[in-house]
Specification:
single chain; 8-stranded mixed beta sheet
Length: 239
């Protein structure tokens, strides 16, 4: 059986509703059978200042995905082989020594995959616009299709400009051979995997904003799952 699998990594410091909602929308849009939430233990492109213990971050992810999800409420809407559980948790980057490089994680999943599995790396637009600084980024682009998420703007002209920025970035920093295929909503290249684009819900939520609210002794209700909020409060995290 052919499976379509998404890989979504991050520090999740903490995980929040914006993460979960965006990835659910990507899963629906691309018909992914499952999405792995991959916790980055030692991120190479982010400061470790304010980064809480990896075990606490892992526990918050586990609590977050225990929440009821929309798929369990209406399973008949989806194919019979559609997994009711939208997320799986991976601790591969925790177990691997050293910094958490995406290329190593992708190679791990592909080495342990079933014969007909296909993989998609899910990233936000801001993160993707730095991909030329990632370890072995050319090998990464050759080995896995990428889904670039962005939040839609109210002005349609701004939406077009956003993807123009991505096009210019690809052509100037990566390769002049990328071209936009509007039918597939993807940038295609003769020797590399596709780079898909997708709009996700405009939710003004970030881990940094949540940490700031906690530091100012303000509520984070409805920004994170209830069990995550309770865990943060019980452990006294981000204070």
């Amino acid at each position: 059986m052919k499976r379509r699998i998404g890989l979504f990594g991050g520090t999740f410091n903490p995980i929040h509703i914006g993460h979960l909602r965006s990835v659910i929308e990507v899963r629906e849009a691309f018909g992914l059978d499952k999405v792995y939430l991959i916790l980055s233990a030692v991120p190479p492109h982010k400061s470790n200042v304010g980064l809480i213990d990896v075990k606490d971050r892992l526990n918050m992810i586990r609590l977050a995905v225990e929440e009821p999800n929309e798929y369990s409420e209406c399973p008949k809407k989806y194919p019979e082989n559609y997994n009711d559980k939208p997320f799986e948790i991976s601790d591969v980057e925790i177990k691997r020594a050293g910094r958490s490089y995406t290329i190593d994680t992708v190679r791990y999943f592909k080495s342990t995959a079933q014969k007909n599995d296909s993989f998609y790396l899910i990233v936000g637009l801001d993160a993707f616009l730095e991909i030329h600084s990632w370890k072995s980024y050319e090998a990464l682009l050759e080995s896995i299709s990428i889904i670039v998420m962005a939040r839609p703007e109210e002005n349609p002209a701004d939406n077009r400009m956003r993807w123009e920025i991505l096009k210019d970035y690809l052509n100037t920093e990566i390769s002049k051979d990328y071209r936009l295929d509007p039918v597939q909503s993807a940038f295609v290249h003769p020797n590399r995997k596709k780079i898909h684009t997708v709009d996700v819900s405009l939710l003004d939520i970030s881990s940094a904003k949540i940490r700031k609210l906690i530091g100012n002794d303000r509520s984070i209700r409805y920004l994170v799952p209830d069990k995550v909020e309770a865990f943060i409060n019980t452990r006294g995290l981000f204070r």
